[in-house]
Design brief:
With about 120 residues, this protein is α+β, with helices and mostly antiparallel strands. Helices cover about 20% and strands about 20% of the residues. It contains two helices and five strands, in the order H-E-H-E-E-E-E. The chain is globular. About 10% of the residues are buried.
Length: about 120
């Protein structure tokens, strides 16, 4: 019997949902629909979406969850976010064998991870 086959969605609450949706649309280019929903379609041979459970003592992020968004050009996005006055974390642009990583905090204090996969794993 097949059970879980991937991540179907991420849900979170906001003090000002309309304003937060607008921030995500403006700064991250997420096509948020009026009812608050956005779809991402991955066209990648591996079809990989990470799902990770960290110990409560981890200092990788402070809120109960963090969303990791795939991006095509991390350096350009980080530059744009900084010029738009967004809270981009120090150390953003870090590179490892897993790709390039950056972090930005949304207006409600949620830390967001931005990930540019290694070039061999980019979609399309």
């Amino acid at each position: 019997m097949t059970r879980v086959t991937g991540i179907g969605g991420v849900f979170f609450k906001a003090r000002d949902a309309e304003a937060l949706r607008a921030w995500y649309a403006k700064h991250l280019g997420i096509d948020v629909q009026p009812w608050g929903w956005a779809a991402f379609r991955w066209n990648e041979p591996e079809g990989v979406t990470a799902w990770t459970v960290l110990p409560a003592s981890s200092d990788y992020f402070s809120q109960p969850f963090m969303i990791n968004y795939r991006v095509a050009d991390l350096a350009a996005l980080l530059e744009a976010l900084r010029s738009e006055g967004c809270d981009v974390a120090e150390g953003s642009g870090e590179e490892s064998e897993f790709g390039k990583f950056g972090w930005v905090t949304d207006p409600e204090g949620n830390r967001i991870e931005l990930w540019e996969p290694p070039s061999a794993r980019l979609p399309g």
